[in-house]
Amino acid sequence: MKIRSLLAALVLVGAPVAAWAETLPPDLAAAAHAYDEAQVHSDRAALERLVADDYVLVNGAGAVQSKADLIRDYVTPGFKLDPFTIEEPVEKVHGDVALLGGRVNMTGTDGGQRFALMVRFVDTWAKRDGQWRVIYSQVTRVAKP
């Protein structure tokens, strides 16, 4: 996966990544934390569970991708995302829909090459059948100062 593809995969909600505010509903905070961990640990089963089947990602290059694309990018051999922290977090909850995002300095390894980039992102979560799922994400690459 090249850096361009990496921008497609960077749909982040980041904890140990980062602790979500205590104002989030506990089940949403737990789902967001599990999603963060799944990304860092390339956990296919958790990603399958937490990402809605009709998920849409608008990646850093402006291309539209699916749940299958997202999961493929995170579990590709040779890809490893380092733990990250969300700066300038955005947390908006409106009933059974929530927007979680912020700015993240991303580092990791892709095909044996180290990478570092900064992105802003937003993940839209929806509570469906009693479970929070990511339904939409948008990632924008930010030039480093």
Explained architecture:
The structure is a single chain. The protein is α+β, with helices and mostly antiparallel strands. The chain has a single domain (3-142), classed as Nuclear Transport Factor 2, Chain: A (Roll). The chain contains four helices and seven strands. Strands 1, 2, 3, 4, 5, 6 and 7 form a seven-stranded mixed beta sheet that branches. Helix 1 (3-9) crosses helix 4 (67-75) and helix 2 (26-40) runs antiparallel to helix 3. The longest helix is centred in the N-terminal third of the chain and has 15 residues, at 26-40. The protein is globular, with a radius of gyration of 14 Å.
What's the arrangement of secondary structure elements?
Elements: H1 3-9, H2 26-40, H3 44-50, E1 51-58, E2 64-66, H4 67-75, E3 79-81, E4 86-94, E5 97-110, E6 113-128, E7 131-142
Parallel strand pairs: 1-7
Antiparallel strand pairs: 1-2, 3-5, 4-5, 5-6, 6-7
Helix pairs in contact: 1-4, 2-3
Question: Taking Cα atoms only, what radius of gyration do you get, to the nearest Å?
Answer: 14 Å
CATH topology: Nuclear Transport Factor 2, Chain: A
Instruction: Give the SSE string.
Output: HHHEEHEEEEE
- Calculate the terminal CA-CA distance, rounded to whole Å: 26 Å
Outline, from the CA principal axes?
Answer: globular
Based on the model shown, name its key terms.
145 residues; alpha+beta; Nuclear Transport Factor 2, Chain: A; 7-stranded mixed β-sheet; 4 helices; 26% helix; globular; disordered N terminus
Question: In summary, what is this structure?
Answer:
By secondary structure, the chain is of the alpha+beta class.
